[in-house]
Amino acid sequence: MGLGVIGVASIIEVAKLAGVSPSTVSRVINEKSYVKQEIRDKVMALVQETGYVPDNAARSMVLKRNFTVGVVLPETFNMFQRQLFSTIERFLEAFGYRTLFFFVKWEPESESKCLRRLKSEKLDGIIMIHEVTDPEFYEYLAAAPAPVVLCTFDREGYDFPAVHVNEDAASQAATRHLIGLGHRNIGLISGSQFTFGAQRAAGYRSALEAAGIPVDEERIILVPTYSPEEGRAGMHELLARGRNLTAVFAATDELAIGAIRALYEVGLNAPGDISIIGIDDLDISAYLSPGLTTVRQPILEMGRMTAEVISGLIAGEDFQHHPLVFGHRLIVRESSRALASGSNGD
Amino acid sequence: MGLGVIGVASIIEVAKLAGVSPSTVSRVINEKSYVKQEIRDKVMALVQETGYVPDNAARSMVLKRNFTVGVVLPETFNMFQRQLFSTIERFLEAFGYRTLFFFVKWEPESESKCLRRLKSEKLDGIIMIHEVTDPEFYEYLAAAPAPVVLCTFDREGYDFPAVHVNEDAASQAATRHLIGLGHRNIGLISGSQFTFGAQRAAGYRSALEAAGIPVDEERIILVPTYSPEEGRAGMHELLARGRNLTAVFAATDELAIGAIRALYEVGLNAPGDISIIGIDDLDISAYLSPGLTTVRQPILEMGRMTAEVISGLIAGEDFQHHPLVFGHRLIVRESSRALASGSNGD
DNA sequence: GTGAAAGCGCTAACAC
DNA sequence: GTGTTAGCGCTTTCAC
Fold it and tell me: For residue B14, which phi and psi values (nearest 5 degrees)?
């Protein structure tokens, strides 16, 4: 374990101890060019002994690189995003980058603060897991010196690589699942925040139309965020409208959890009274009682792809148009069930 | 919004444009010493216009500080830890520090890799939200040039400031809640990982003993991790042992969620057949159906305290012995209920 | 009140 | 193969 003096050694001291120049020590450490075996061994031994670790700040100053990728995500990130960013972090680390997280609130001031911090970090790359509102933010990103990858959404008018699921297809699949179970009076709880809220609502509409079921606007509710609380409130509102719902498609699993909760509060249950389906397939969704029927986004693949694309871009590779739009997978559990004949409420 | 040349401006260019020296620009930005109002205004205007932001690497090199606090947490961090670290991050940012996360897996190799990375970062402070196993890790921490604060646990033999809840009191409260409801046949699902698993089990035992209820070892199960899956498996095992349980104390909410799931899988339910209580009070716990009865840890206060202590320490303040051990709060929801008389299974 | 100059720790030319 | 030198962008004495 050696002396283990804690990180006080600089490259100069190691060089002195080894009786060589700092450049040589640098060469040994970075394996840039050949150094005589004997010297190399000696230096390595000293590095061990002194516990020398290169100073990142000095290194990144001269290299003009930080080996750091910034990840912007909502301060209130949910479990889906949590899984996504862990995955991204893991792959990024494997590629030799450290990850710096930027949590941003859903308010202009927070976004501009984030933007300032982003600028000061001289990042090698930026991953957006959060769809900010400020147009200036995207302008900066587009002109930024570092590559940018969007994850879980796309932005019209820019050509950032964007890793995301086909929202329309996913929500059509969710709606079709309910239709296939015999449901006709299907409600929707989606959100007005972020692009995907509208996209998922659109998928719901087109699936209904494709099945020849008229869209009843009273069965659609758009809540401000995607939290369980909003799902709960949305479901209560839907119930209050008395549209004889037998099924509800919640645009996210968290919304679905809240919706089931609302049912519970009024003495109803899923799927007994109303079938529920979500989107995301959070870790927890399989452990709910009833287990949540949902549409899974391939988190692992999306995270890996995001990390791969950004590191390729950083390395200067041309952006090959990877297939960046991912497919979904329907996961049927217990919160949805076939409509008992004659019980469609009409 | 001005020229907005992307972060290419250096302090020298701003100085040239303003017709002053770099030192003056530095003084204006850092408000270190007085600069004539006129010049100050001019410089500030240029800073705006050029979008100049000081380079962190250069800054930290000369200042010999990174303004960075490292937070070590488990790669599989749960929702409780997620809330905790968001809180810490927010306060740290308010104090002017950026947060660098170190996710570590539950394996020796991952811990030593984390240790290496920790060393190379020249952190101003280190917060441990994860109880690593490697003794060497703690040795490093104890000798580290930067202050260290433990959060959610304590480590015998060291005198790191440790922010955590009184585990014994919290789990006694949970157990007593069940006892107060008339339950006598109370199971326990806790874990063998981390110190708190044993602590919570101890609280369970002493509460039982205090109530004159003999501890039945067959009603206690220790699972390897604290995931819903383990809670589910643990509950199935408990059920299989046929000890006429009417209530179960799960050492974490995630464990409790899994336990309820297990009940659901065999056609039982909480609280109808078995009452369930957890510890943590995750965001999601209130939205389950039934809502989970649990013991809340004051996440916000703990996070704030952690950030305050570390920033005080970094600023060179002597460590005043703050009250670092927090109290809990029983949150009664629907997963627990009074034992119907005569239904105690014996 | 402001400028000049030194230097933080490192790497990359460029000599030798 | 290895040493010398310059310089990354910033802050901070020290002059003025």
Answer: -60, -45
Residue A269 confidence class, pLDDT cut points 50, 70, 90: very high
Residue B73 CA from chain centroid, whole number: 8
Distances (CA, A) of A317 to A67, B22, B268: 16, 37, 57
Mean of per-residue pLDDT scores for chain B: 92
Residues touching nucleic chain D (CB < 7 Å):
A 19-24, 27, 33-36, 39-40, 58, 61-62, 64; B 10-12, 22-23, 25-27, 29-30, 32, 52, 54-55, 58-59, 61-63
Give Cα A239 to chain centroid, integer Å: 32
What positions of strand D are covered by protein, i.e. any atom < 7 Å from a CB? 1-5, 7-13
**Is the dihedral angle over the CA atoms A292, A294, A298, A302 positive or is it negative?**
negative
3-state secondary structure of A84: helix
- Considering only CB atoms, A6 lies closest to which of B60, B143, B290, namely B143
Residue B6 has pLDDT above 50, yes or no: no
Q: What count of CB pairs under 8 Å joins A to B? A: 128
Answer yes or no: are the C-beta atoms of B255 and B234 closer than 8 Å.
yes
For tokens 């010196």, the residue is A145
State yes or no: pLDDT of A179 exceeds 70: yes
In this predicted model, what pLDDT tens digit does every residue of B279-293 receive, in sequence order?
Answer: 999 999 999 999 999
What average pLDDT score do residues A62-78 get? 90
Nearest to A79 among B75, B79, B90 (CB): B79
The distance (Å) linking the CA of B6 with the C1' of D8 is: 18
- Tokens matching residue A197: 């809220």
pLDDT in tens, A331-341: 999 999 999 87
